[in-house]
């Protein structure tokens, strides 16, 4: 049971109702994270706005999911691990071994570039982005650039909002996401 109210369209503050309607229409259900974020309409707006911006950053969709899953694992957010696992496997058709490696924070043997990205994301988080020259050089040698590095930080910032809200609220995982938990 959540420590915070999980809003429906009807129970949400008026300022959050249109966003909940849009999410319901797009997904067929309202993820509990969105219902919790509705307690703070500006946080919900931030999530939706930054999520849209993150969705058009310089990383590929698969690379964005590497960042999101890595961040969710580091931040201990089972809800976001499940949600992004579903996106990675079902929507993007990412290989199961890649997703399993991300969830375990282990090496991605089948894709050196994604492995470098996952390790870079992990270092950004654990070292508060105070990376060594060698870490940056390894990231750049894998084919990434300065814009990509900053977009990793953008993705981590979005993930942190969601992960922390879920962690404080103890948001239960929706039945639609349970198979990916």
From TrEMBL:
UniProt feature coiled coil, ranges: none
Protein name: Carboxymuconolactone decarboxylase family protein
Pfam families: CMD (PF02627)
Domain Carboxymuconolactone decarboxylase-like: start-end pairs: 49-105
InterPro entries: AhpD-like, AhpD_core, CMD-like
